[in-house]
Amino acid sequence: MGRVVDAIDEMGELDNTLGSAKHYNHFPAGWAWAMYTPFQWTKQIASHFGGTRNGMAISWPKGIQARGEVRDQFHHVIDVYPAILEIVGVETPVQLNGIALKPVEGISMAYSFDDAKAEGRRTTQYFEMLGNQGIYHDGWMASALRGVPWVSENPPANLLEMPWELYHVEEGFSQA
């Protein structure tokens, strides 16, 4: 890593890699919370879509006929890889160098590229980060909050006895 940094420095581009006063590489949790409005929490609270309920833009002019349309099917980042494999026509590998690979858990999003009204195929998705848990199923999200991001070490908790909240995210996407 040091050689890479040294090479960038020798090129005179080191200052171009570290951001500037216009970049917010680190900021207090309160600002992170405010910038994630209208959601309840920040990115460390996956149970309440923290940092996970984000829009995604896809451009493939030669493969997607639709232009400027919005899709609202529920997908997860694990669905990107199967979509790429499908559109390039490559089968999911089952082994690499003779070693069996875990099955891909994602669901290709390609079915929605030219059909905005296509019924979503991801019906269930589990989320967990730092003990904050959530599960999405058919337009509903059940969420359990273990701790908050500004406390570096939340008190121990029995993850099986946390209180759960239920939201119909098809009606209220922000879990308000």
From TrEMBL:
It comes from the Bacteria. SUPFAM superfamilies: Alkaline phosphatase-like. InterPro entries: Alkaline_phosphatase_core_sf, Sulfatase. Belongs to the sulfatase family. This is Sulfatase N-terminal domain-containing protein. It comes from Bremerella alba.
